[in-house]
C-alpha cells in the first residue's frame, strides 16, 4: 500500500483507529482489527493485517483511493461487498476484449487457498461478439462456455446466443482461473461483423437480470471500449472454510483447535462442494466466527420485523407477545379482545341457550297438557255418544243393576289388558277386537275394543 503524502498517511491511521473502536463494540472482527474499508464492512474470518484474519482470508485496503477500495488477497481483485450470513462475496468483474481474429486470455488471479474454498456461483459467463467461443478454464479444465454467432442481419438487445451469449458457471475453484476468447472460422459469415470487438466477462445473474440493457450498451461491439466510462459489473463467489482438508461440520468439530465457529448460539452447515459455514442461530445476530459474536436480537426493538400489538417481552433467542391485562387473543396479529366482551358474549350465549331450552320445555308441557285435555274431551264425547250418561243414571237409581255392572276408566282397562297386549287377544269380529282382561280383584273378564261405532245399534 503506497501513500503519496504524509497527509494521506495520517488520514489512514485515523481511519484505522476509528474502525478499531467500532470493531470492539460491534464484534464484527477480532479485537484491535480494522473492520471497514471505505463503506465496506470486513467481518472475520476476513481481515486486514497480521493476526486479523483466518488463513487465506486476507484482504488489502487501498486508502489512497477516494473512497478507499478493498481488494482480495494482496490486491488483484476488487471486493464490492462481503455477505457473512450467506457466505458470499461480490467481486468486481474484469472485461476481456479481443479483435475478431485474435485469441486472448484473462487470468482472474485468485491465489490457491488451502483453508478457503471458493465456489463460482450465481454468475454467468457473458460474451458479446461475433463467431467466437468463450471459455472459463479452471484447474480441472473448462467449466463453462458460450458461443455468440453472427446472423446475416443485426438483432436487438437480447442475450439468446446470437451476438450475445451466456453460460451459467457453478463450480468450485481452487485458485486462479482463466477466461479465454477464441475465434471460430466459419464459412459464409457476414463481413459486416469483421471489424467488431469481442468481449467477455463474468456477471452476477441477479445483477444481469436488472441491468441487461445497460450492460449490452456498454459492451456494444461496434464502439471503442477504451473511450467509455468504466462500469462496475459484479460477479459472485461463495466461500467456506476447509482447514486441513475438512469436508464438513462433523470433521471440523473433531479438531477443536482450528474449528472456526467460535461463538455460542451458532449453527454449522456443510458447504455445497467442500468445507463448512457458520452462522448465528435464529433469534441471534452477529458474527458466528468471533467469540461471543452471536448476540440476542431484541425483537421488541424491531416491530417492523417482529410485529407485536400488545406487551412485548424479549427472551434469549426469542420473544413473547401477549395481550394487555384485561384482554386476550393473538397479540402478534393484533387480535386482542376484551375479557369483558368475551364474558358478555358467554353470558349472552348461556342466557340464549337457557331461554331456548326453557321455551322448549314449556311448549312440551303445554302440548302434553293439551293432548291430555283433548283425549279427555274425546273420551267424554264418546261417553256421551255411547249413552254413558244414561248408564250412570241407571246405576245410580237401580241398586240391582249397580251390583252387577260397573263403569271402568281407560286406565283400569289398560291395566287389565296390559295396554291391550296382543298376547291377550281372544278374537276379532266385524266391529272390533276382544281381549282377555284380569281385573284388580283377579276376576277374568272379556273386554271388547270397538273399531266401528254403529249409531243405530247404540240407539
UniProtKB/TrEMBL annotation:
Its name, as the record gives it, is: EGF-like domain-containing protein
Q: Where in the cell is it found?
A: Membrane
Secretion signal span: 1-25
Which terms does the record give in the GO molecular function aspect? ATP binding; calcium ion binding; polysaccharide binding
Q: Per its UniProt record, what SMART domains does this chain match? A: EGF, EGF_CA
Its source organism is: Rhynchospora breviuscula
Keywords tagged on the record: ATP-binding, Disulfide bond, EGF-like domain, Membrane, Nucleotide-binding, Repeat, Signal, Transmembrane, Transmembrane helix
Instruction: Tell me where in this chain the EGF-like domain is found.
Output: 296-337
Question: Which parts pass through the membrane?
Answer: 346-370
This protein's GO CC annotations: membrane
Main location per UniProt? Answer: membrane
Q: Which residues bind ATP?
A: 455
Output the InterPro entries linked to this UniProt entry.
EGF (IPR000742), EGF-like_Ca-bd_dom (IPR001881), EGF-like_CS (IPR013032), EGF-type_Asp/Asn_hydroxyl_site (IPR000152), EGF_Ca-bd_CS (IPR018097), Kinase-like_dom_sf (IPR011009), NOTCH1_EGF-like (IPR049883), Protein_kinase_ATP_BS (IPR017441)
User: Topology relative to the membrane, per the entry?
Assistant: Single-pass membrane protein
Amino acid at each position: 500500500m503506497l501513500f503519496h503524502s504524509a497527509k494521506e498517511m495520517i488520514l489512514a491511521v485515523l481511519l484505522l483507529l476509528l474502525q478499531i473502536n467500532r470493531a470492539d463494540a460491534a464484534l464484527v472482527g477480532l479485537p484491535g482489527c480494522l473492520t471497514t474499508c471505505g463503506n465496506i464492512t470486513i467481518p472475520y474470518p476476513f481481515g486486514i493485517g497480521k493476526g486479523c484474519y483466518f488463513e487465506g482470508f486476507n484482504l488489502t485496503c487501498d486508502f489512497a483511493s477516494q473512497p478507499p477500495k478493498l481488494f482480495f488477497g494482496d490486491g488483484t481483485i476488487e471486493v464490492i461487498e462481503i455477505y457473512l450470513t450467506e457466505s458470499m462475496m461480490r467481486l468486481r468483474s474484469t472485461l476481456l476484449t479481443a479483435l475478431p481474429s485474435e485469441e486472448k486470455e484473462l487470468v482472474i488471479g485468485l491465489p490457491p487457498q488451502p483453508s478457503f474454498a471458493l465456489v463460482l456461483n450465481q454468475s454467468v459467463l457473458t460474451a458479446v461478439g461475433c463467431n467466437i467461443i468463450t471459455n472459463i478454464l479452471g484447474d480441472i479444465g473448462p467449466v463453462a462456455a458460450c458461443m455468440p454467432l453472427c446472423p446475416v442481419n443485426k438483432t436487438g438487445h437480447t442475450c439468446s446466443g446470437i451476438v450475445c451469449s451466456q453460460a451459467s458457471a457453478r463450480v468450485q475453484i481452487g485458485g486462479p482461473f482463466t477466461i479465454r476468447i477464441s475465434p471460430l472460422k466459419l464459412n459464409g459469415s457476414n463481413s459486416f461483423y469483421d471489424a467488431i470487438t469481442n468481449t467477455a466477462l463474468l456477471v452476477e445473474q441477479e445483477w444481469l437480470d436488472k441491468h441487461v440493457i445497460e450492460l449490452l450498451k456498454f459492451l456494444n461491439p461496434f464502439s471503442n471500449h477504451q473511450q467509455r466510462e468504466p462500469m462496475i459489473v459484479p460477479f459472485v463467489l461463495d466461500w467456506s472454510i476447509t482447514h486441513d482438508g475438512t469436508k464438513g461440520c462433523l470433521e471440523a468439530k473433531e479438531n477443536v483447535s482450528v474449528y472456526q465457529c467460535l461463538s455460542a448460539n451458532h449453527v454449522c452447515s456443510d458447504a455445497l462442494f467442500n468445507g463448512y459455514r457458520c452462522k448465528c442461530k435464529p433469534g441471534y445476530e452477529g458474527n458466528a466466527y468471533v467469540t461471543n459474536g452471536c448476540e440476542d436480537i431484541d425483537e421488541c426493538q424491531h416491530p417492523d420485523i417482529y410485529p407485536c400489538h400488545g406487551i412485548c417481552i424479549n427472551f434469549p433467542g426469542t420473544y413473547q407477545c401477549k395481550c394487555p391485562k384485561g384482554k386476550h387473543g393473538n397479540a402478534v396479529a393484533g387480535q386482542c379482545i376484551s375479557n369483558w366482551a368475551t364474558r358478555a358474549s358467554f353470558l349472552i350465549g348461556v342466557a340464549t341457550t337457557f331461554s331456548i331450552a326453557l321455551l322448549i320445555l314449556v311448549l312440551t308441557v303445554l302440548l302434553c297438557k293439551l293432548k291430555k285435555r283433548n283425549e279427555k274431551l274425546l273420551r267424554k264425547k264418546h261417553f256421551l255418544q255411547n249413552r254413558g250418561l244414561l248408564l250412570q243414571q241407571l246405576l245410580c237409581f237401580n241398586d240391582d243393576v249397580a251390583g252387577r255392572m260397573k263403569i271402568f276408566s281407560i286406565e283400569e282397562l289398560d291395566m287389565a289388558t296390559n295396554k291391550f297386549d296382543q298376547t291377550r287377544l281372544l278374537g276379532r269380529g266385524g266391529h272390533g277386537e276382544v281381549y282377555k282382561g284380569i281385573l284388580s280383584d283377579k276376576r277374568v273378564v272379556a273386554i271388547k275394543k270397538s273399531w266401528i261405532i254403529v249409531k243405530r245399534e247404540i240407539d
